[in-house]
């Protein structure tokens, strides 16, 4: 069986016996079979597993056969779940963190209705609200380990869309499609930061890129969404895995310019300190460097304006035909009509 939580991944956790670790891994396998997405941190998965076990009064693997459910009249309040977990699974969770049980540990399970609330119509902060396993899933728990159990689960749950599939579809619907200058396509996850990166690629580069090619762009869910590692190495760019990597890196062969672009939504403009960091990291770069801070709109620019470093550029997506030059007298002079 797959090891979702292993001792080497649990060094920062409270030590658990091998029996408890096996129980947690078995529980996570069961939850994955029930369609629960397991793409969280090991600690969060561990907490979800023990909260689920508490909701069914399951202390050891043999207890799966007698798992309790809502129809059993069994249910634990969040404070009682903490006590249950501390007493049976080697934890020392603070009694004051009872709200984390509802908001974090049981969240996916209640959304998927694998765990039910004993009084679903009560207020969210109702201290008498209890949690217990949905009888449909408890029935499958009691047969765990039987021959063709996975097939039994598939048949029993055939009319229930797995939460993992539902969430994946929602994420896919929210994707942002981006067209590269080369004609290639990228897909960003949804969000203001990625909307700005899309604008940089589709609106800034055609205006100011001088035929530039995208060599790197990250995504909020995938830091290395697009990476031309070999081309960056040929320019003597600094180590790609470095945490100081800008949001977008673009190269114009025509000008021999390498654009280092920061897409600012909530933080991260090219400040004086950031500029010094980037200059040190790119001291061996063969291309001339252009530093750009990009914003979605003027209000966002005004928020960070005093932080912008001299000898850098600013581009604002809702005024795409203009640049703001923080370059002293470099561009001083009359404009021709």
Automatic annotation (TrEMBL):
<dbReference type="InterPro" id="IPR009528">
    <property type="entry name" value="Restrct_endonuc_II_BsuBI_C"/>
</dbReference>
<keyword id="KW-0540">Nuclease</keyword>
<dbReference type="GO" id="GO:0003677">
    <property type="term" value="F:DNA binding"/>
</dbReference>
<dbReference type="InterPro" id="IPR041454">
    <property type="entry name" value="BsuBI/PstI_N"/>
</dbReference>
<dbReference type="Pfam" id="PF06616">
    <property type="entry name" value="BsuBI_PstI_RE"/>
</dbReference>
<keyword id="KW-0255">Endonuclease</keyword>
<dbReference type="InterPro" id="IPR041963">
    <property type="entry name" value="BsuBI/PstI_C_sf"/>
</dbReference>
<feature type="domain" description="BsuBI/PstI restriction endonuclease HTH">
    <location>
        <begin position="23"/>
        <end position="161"/>
    </location>
</feature>
<dbReference type="InterPro" id="IPR041962">
    <property type="entry name" value="BsuBI/PstI_N_sf"/>
</dbReference>
<dbReference type="GO" id="GO:0000287">
    <property type="term" value="F:magnesium ion binding"/>
</dbReference>
<dbReference type="Pfam" id="PF17728">
    <property type="entry name" value="BsuBI_PstI_RE_N"/>
</dbReference>
<dbReference type="GO" id="GO:0009036">
    <property type="term" value="F:type II site-specific deoxyribonuclease activity"/>
</dbReference>
<keyword id="KW-0378">Hydrolase</keyword>
<feature type="domain" description="BsuBI/PstI restriction endonuclease">
    <location>
        <begin position="177"/>
        <end position="328"/>
    </location>
</feature>
<protein>
    <submittedName>
        <fullName>Restriction endonuclease</fullName>
    </submittedName>
</protein>
<dbReference type="GO" id="GO:0009307">
    <property type="term" value="P:DNA restriction-modification system"/>
</dbReference>
